[in-house]
# Entry
Amino acid sequence: MVTEKKPIDHSIDADVLADFAVQALLEEVRLTPKPGLVDYDNNGCHFDLNLSLMELSANTLRSTFKEMAQAVRTQRPSQQVREILAMIGRDGERKMLAATGNVNTHKGAIWTLGLITGAAAMLLSVKYPEEITTKSILNVAGQIAVFQDRYVPKSITNGSLVRKRYSVRSAREEAAMKFPSLQNVALPALANFSHEPQQIQRLNVLLSLMAITDDTCILNRSDMEVLDKIKATSNKIVENGGMGKVQNRARFQELDRFITENWVSPGGSADLLAAVIYLEKITDSLKK
# Structure
């Protein structure tokens, strides 16, 4: 028996993608408890961030994600597409900083979710719904990321200094490799813990990412010894069944204390968690 394909789905347009991206950012920041990160309980290891500011920032970026989707929907991965997304992303950063009083709330997320937005918009214009998967979206995002942005500002950032000092992978390298942290770790964790309540499932995904991510947000404030301890403790929690197991609550509290004592924040892992939530929203909507 031949199953008839659904028509190409144009109901997920630029507006819907932008809504999903903002929802993903909001759901990430509202996930509680998160060690070192802003949530409903506290501001994590941040003096300049709080929940309402993060929510304001996320909502401010809606127009950025919509513009990205509209701009590249009919394109194919190319240097031009890479530079269009980067230009819109930098404009989004300016909007974010204007809204937050010059506080960097979502710069990393603009990069990651922006690539996913562009990739999803492209696929939605040419593929049938059942042909679009998290893997196909991340593969196209990677094809975009391999191109150079000739107009990137030539400035020295904290992230670039940290990457040079510790020889760790950059966000661009992660993307150009088609997001191995997402494909090989985070998305399998999402599936492995699908039997858990959503809060526990997502905390386990976050911990899975913290266990493997050379997070420059952490290294910027500390060193490799601190990062390795965070990775090892996060891994121990996940390997022993995750946050759904009562015996792991004490380990999680130990992790939270260690992160607070060292005043570091796993912001890179948080951005990747938002990407997982975003991908889940896109692919779930295509199953309906």
